[in-house]
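Course exercise 7: structure representation. Students receive a sequence record and must write out the corresponding structure in C-alpha cell form. The form below is the worked example handed out in class, using Sulfatase-like hydrolase/transferase (606 residues). Read each field label carefully; the graders check that inputs and outputs are placed in the correct fields and that the protein name is recorded exactly as given.

STUDENT ID: A-19
EXERCISE PROTEIN: Sulfatase-like hydrolase/transferase
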Amino acid sequence: MIKNILSLLLLFIVLPEIHAQQKDKPNILWIVSEDNSPFLGCYGDTFATTPHLDKFAKQGILYKNAFATAPVCAPSRFTLVTGMYPPSMGTEHMRSTYPVPDYVKFFPRYLREAGYYTTNNAKKDYNTTDQPEAWDESSAKATYKNRKPGQPFFAVFNLNVSHESSIHTSIPTNKLKHDPEKVNLPPYHPATPEMKHDWAQYYDKIEEMDRQVGALLKELEAEGQAENTIIFYYSDNGGILGRSKRFLYESGLRVPLIIRFPEKYARLAPNTPGTETDRIVTFNDFAPTVLSLAGLEVPSHMQGKAFLGAREVKERAYAYGFRGRMDERTDLSRSVRDKKFRYIRNYLPHIIYGQYLEYLWKAPSIASWEAKFKAGRLNEDQKKFWQEKPAEELFDIENDPHNIHNLAGDPSHKEVLLKLRKANHDWLIETQDVGFIPEPLLGKIAETTPLRDYAKSGKYELNKIIETAEIASSRDKSHLKELVKRLGDKDAVVRYWAVIGTIILKNDAMPAKAKLQPLLNDPEVVVRIAAAEALLALGDTDAPVQTLNEALKSESRMARVQALNVLENIGAKAQPAFENVKALLTGDPKDTDYDVRAAKKVLETE
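STUDENT ANSWER:
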C-alpha cells in the first residue's frame, strides 16, 4: 500500500510538470507552395499581387538566401522530411523509390513520439519508401483541429495552385488578371505570345496561392492558435517556366522563406518582426530546425544543421544543390552557392540544357521557345538553353541575378572559381555522393543494400570515381591517354565515366576507338550503352545500334531509358531498333512510365 501511495504522489508531482512542458511547446505550421521562386511583393517583385504574404513578411523574418537542394519537388521533399542530402542517399533522381537505411526516419515521427500531433495535407512525394507512421493524419482532410485538447501540433499544408501543371491549359487572355504585355521577361526568354501569356497566367496562380495562404492564417486565428504557433511559409522549389524548375540556377533553387514567431516565442526569433536576414539556409536544415524549435535533440545522422532554437549552430558558408535524372532524361550536375556567387559543375556537358521532357513540353511557352531556336530567331542569351553546357559555370548573383554571364573562364574570377570548385569537390567526398553511379547500376545495388550503406561499405571507389568524372567532363583532350587507360578499370563505374569522357571529346577521342569496341560486350549494361554512344559518334553504326537494341530488352527500366536517350539522338540510324522501341508502348495512353515517354519520342523520327 505504501508503494502505491508513493506512486500516486509521484504521479501528482510529475503530471503537472509534463503538462507544463507540453503546454510550453510551440505549435509549428508549414505552409508550402509549389514551384515558385520569390515572385512576391515582399521580395521586391512589383508585378506580383500578394497582399497576404506581404503582410505576413511584415510580421515575420524574411530570408533572402533560402535554397532548395534540388530544383524539382520529389528530391527536394526527401531533403525536407529527412534532413539528409539526396545524393548521399541515392534519392536524387526524380521519382525514384530506392530504400534508405532504417535509422533514417521522417522527422515528424520524432515530434509525434514527443507528444506532438502531426498532420500532412496532403502531398507527400518523398522520393523513397513511404513512412506513414510519421503522421497522425495524412490526407486531403488532414488538420491540426483533430488533436487532443492542449496537444501541440506540427502541421503541413501544401498549396498546389502554383504548380507547373497550372499553365498546361491556357486561360483566355481576356480572363487573365495580369496583363501579358506588361510581364517583365527574364533576358533568356524570347517575347513570344505564348511565353508572355504563360508568365501572366502563372502570376495569376501565385495571386490565388497568396489568397489561400491568407485563408490558412485566418483559420489559425479563428482557432485561437496564432499566438501559440511558429509559421513557416516557403516554396518546394523554384519555377516554373523553362530554365527555372529542374535547373541549377537561382530560378530553380532559390525559394521564398518567411517565418513568423508569435510574441510568446519571440525569444526563438533571430530578429524583430518585419526584418530580413541574409543567412544562408537550405532544405537540409529544415528538419533539424523544427526539432530544435520543439526542444528536441537533433539525430546525429542528419546532415542539416538547425538555424533556429536551442540547437542552432553557426551559419553555413554554402548552399549545395544537385541535378540528377529529370523524368525520362539523364543528366548530372552539382552546384555551390555562397552569398555572392553560384558555381555549377556539369558532369555531362555534352547533353544540352533543353532536353525534351514530355511533361515540360506541355507548357505552350517551351514549345514556342524551341520553335524560335529552330527558326534561328534567338539572341545569344536565349540560344544557350538549346546548346551543350560548359563544364563549369560561375555567376555573380549581385550583378547577374538571371545567371546569364558565365565567369568561369574570366581570369579576374579565377580565385573564386578555384574556391567554389574545391568546395564542391570536398562536399562530394564528405557526403559520399552516390549519384555518380549510373542509375541502372544504382538500382541493381539498391535491390539488396541501401545506397547510403553501400557508400560506407568500402566497395564504393569514391575518390577514383569522382576524379574520373572530373577529368571526363573537363573537355580537355590532354586527359585522353588517362581516360583510355581507365576504360579497362576493374570498377564498372570508372569504366563508365572513362567512356563518357570520350563521348564529350567527340572526334578528339578517335585514338580510343579500338579500346571502346570491346566494351560493347562489357558485363555491365550501362557501360555497353555508353560505349555504343561513343562509337556512334566516331562513325560506327551497326554494332552500336545492335547493342542499344539489346539494351531495350533489359529488366532495368533506367537502362532502357539510357538506351532510348541515345537512340533518339541518332535519328534515322535508330531504325533497326524500332521494333523493340514499339514493344515498350503498352497501348495505354495514360502510361507515364519514363521508358514509355522516351520511346514515344524516339518513334517521332520514324
